[in-house]
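Lab meeting, item 3. Inverse folding demo.
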């Protein structure tokens, strides 16, 4: 199953985690926004919370939110859920169903943090085995890890696609890759691709820790700047005054910040793992993907070299920058090819 047929009267209900402001929920808000642009009747549902108020961060996507009581379980309609909420599918019976795999994988973190998060995940996974449905009943999410009949599987990355095909045995999965945030698209790609006006600053995401990053931050010969607590407008200014963004954590998907930074003119250095291993999700030359995580001195040397030779290296990221610039149009085309609007 690689498409869903609908008509102009069909309603598309996109279930979204309630109250979260992260990349996954933003992608779900983007999906609704672009679906409406393409002529679909699409609505967000904040799962079974009953909440109708979207986070302020997503107001630019003009969200239309309905409660779960307004979801019509009819074969003309469509239900879309992210992979973290796949158990919701069993609550409904007649509606056409779609799962969107927005990510796959976990961060690389220190042993201490890994143990702590591991304990939390045990508890979380236990409770995530159940959902509290509209009939006020607990239901067991019994089929999240195996292929379901009459369910469309969409993948937000090549990395997720490979796992869905190999692990879930879904031979007809389709790609559905969201663009970067609206704020960045409005500004367009950076025009200044020279070292003039850019400092020797190395950007990183502190919300995505790794053992390699912990060791690098102990050094005093490199100026690091964490990206935390900034608005998109502030991020654009920071990106366009910096030369390099680094990310050695695991890539559950293409990740938003690497794309945002490259779009705004930084070079990029990542760890070669997960989605960053393939040339589709992180479309940069292999020379900028680190495979040896043990030699921190060599990584530091690579960072300093990239800062020093920014003007010579920035052209190596032109392909990825152009690809990011085309994501919005490709997303619209993917929507139209997956959700087929039938003539009356």
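The presenter then showed the designed sequence:
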């Amino acid at each position: 199953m690689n498409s869903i047929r609908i008509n102009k009267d069909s309603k598309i209900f996109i279930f979204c985690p309630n109250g979260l402001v992260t990349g996954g929920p933003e992608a779900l808000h983007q999906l609704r926004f672009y679906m409406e642009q393409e002529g679909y009747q699409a609505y967000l549902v904040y799962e079974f919370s009953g909440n109708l108020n979207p986070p302020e961060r997503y107001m630019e996507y003009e969200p239309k939110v309905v409660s779960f009581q307004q979801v019509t379980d009819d074969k003309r309609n469509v239900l879309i859920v992210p992979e973290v909420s796949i158990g919701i599918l069993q609550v409904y019976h007649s509606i056409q169903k779609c799962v969107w795999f927005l990510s796959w994988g976990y961060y690389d973190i220190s042993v201490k943090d890994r143990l702590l998060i591991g304990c939390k995940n045990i508890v979380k996974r236990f409770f995530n085995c159940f959902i509290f449905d509209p009939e006020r009943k607990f239901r067991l999410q019994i089929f999240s890890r195996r292929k379901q009949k009459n369910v469309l599987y969409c993948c937000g990355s090549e990395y997720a696609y490979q796992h869905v095909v190999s692990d879930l045995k879904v031979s007809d999965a389709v790609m559905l890759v969201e663009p970067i945030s609206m704020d960045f698209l409005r500004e367009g790609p950076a025009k200044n691709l020279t070292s003039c006006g850019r400092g020797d600053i190395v950007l990183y995401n502190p919300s995505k820790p790794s053992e390699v990053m912990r060791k690098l931050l102990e050094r005093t010969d490199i100026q690091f700047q964490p990206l935390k607590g900034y608005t998109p407008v502030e991020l654009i200014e920071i990106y366009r005054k910096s030369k390099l963004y680094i990310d050695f954590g695991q890539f559950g998907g293409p990740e938003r910040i690497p794309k945002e930074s490259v779009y705004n003119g930084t070079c990029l250095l990542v760890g070669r793992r997960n989605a960053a291993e393939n040339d589709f999700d992180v479309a940069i030359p292999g020379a900028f993907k680190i495979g040896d995580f043990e030699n921190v001195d060599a990584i530091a040397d690579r960072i300093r070299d990239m800062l020093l030779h920014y003007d010579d290296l920035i052209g190596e990221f032109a392909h990825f920058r152009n690809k990011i610039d085309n994501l919005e149009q490709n997303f619209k085309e993917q929507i139209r090819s997956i959700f087929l609007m039938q003539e009356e």
